[in-house]
Amino acid sequence: MKDGWGRDINYIRISVTDRCNLRCIYCMPLEGVEKKEHDDILRHEDILKIVKCCAKLGINKIRLTGGEPLIVKDIDRLIYEISKVEGIYDIGITTNGILLKDMAGDLKKCGLKRVNISLDTLDEEKFKKITRRGQLKNVLDAIEECLRIGLSPVKINTVLIRGINDNEIEDIMNLTRKYPLDVRFIELMPIGEGEKYYKDGFISSEEIIKNHKSLIPLGRKKGETAENYKLSDAIGKIGFISPLSCKFCDSCNRIRLTSTGTIKPCLHSEKEYSIREYLNSEDMLLMAIKNSILNKPKEHYLEENEKSFSKKMMFQIGG
């Protein structure tokens, strides 16, 4: 369906948990998150009810996020059940990759089509510094396994922070010479823990592109957030996601569902719509989701009005 500004909304990002097995410095506090009661988090059957209603409204693309979705019990079963929903043809997941290698094959069999893997450094010691736990090798092995079994596309999400990993830009770009990956550089956002690094650490996509003359522009596909480029001899692509320096609100095609049962029509807006109370009535649930889509803001004002955007952290919203 179309939102109030005429945009086709066909994509929902579903956060299945706000917990994570890493503590990335720009995302989650060192002490982790306050553990919620079991009843505070949407059950798989609740998520399926919401997905079925979304499909009736024309949403056909699903991405499961977190926190870290692979720590959720029976995540493979949830993917399988979503894959059977009429109208849903594309199921993806965003993960830190720590647990992915051993799960990738089963997830694909259950209906997973694509995967986004967070990777902010290729240096083992720096990986430990950024994530505050975990092993880089687990992530690199997961990437190779996903490519081996034919998940496509396999996208790498890299958040650049000046003074921390900006000296690795070329090394990360060069992954596209060896692997058929979509490497995407994402601008650091002043949300949650990211605020601590934003003032001194923000690097715009424009700056990176300007300093790398060898990048060949490919443009942006409809509905995509990334402006795409490639290296002349590469088998993969390089994308830049620029929500601050070059926002893409006019083509935004998505809404978000938090793990506690609220719809966020815009990542950066404080406005949320609770739909938990409608889970026992399909008609009411359908209307509540439809209402949230119709009230999707025209654009975010993150770059000019900090009072208007969400005060939640990314792991509470869904990455």
Give a concise summary.
The protein is α/β, with parallel strands linked by helices and 319 residues long.
Written description of the protein model:
Helix content is 29%, strand content 17%. It has 319 residues and is α/β, with parallel strands linked by helices. It has a single domain (11-317), classed as Aldolase class I (TIM Barrel, Alpha-Beta Barrel). Strands 7-8-9-6-5-4-3-2-1-10-11-12 form a twelve-stranded mixed beta sheet. Strand 7 (216-219) and strand 8 form a beta hairpin. Helix 1 (44-56) crosses helix 10. It is globular and about 55 Å long. The chain starts with 10 loop residues before the first strand and ends with a helix.
Main features:
single chain, alpha/beta, TIM Barrel, twelve-stranded mixed sheet, 11 helices, 12 strands
Give the topology, please.
Blueprint lengths: L10 E5 L28 H13 L4 E5 L9 H9 L6 E6 L4 H11 L3 E5 L5 H8 L4 H14 L4 E6 L9 H5 L1 H4 L3 E5 L8 H7 L3 H6 L5 E4 L6 E5 L6 E5 L12 E4 L4 E3 L8 E2 L7 H13 L19 H4 L2
Parallel strand pairs: 1-2, 1-10, 2-3, 3-4, 4-5, 5-6, 6-9
Antiparallel strand pairs: 7-8, 8-9, 10-11, 11-12
Cofactor: [4Fe-4S] cluster
Subunit structure: Monomer and homodimer.
Pathway: Cofactor biosynthesis; molybdopterin biosynthesis
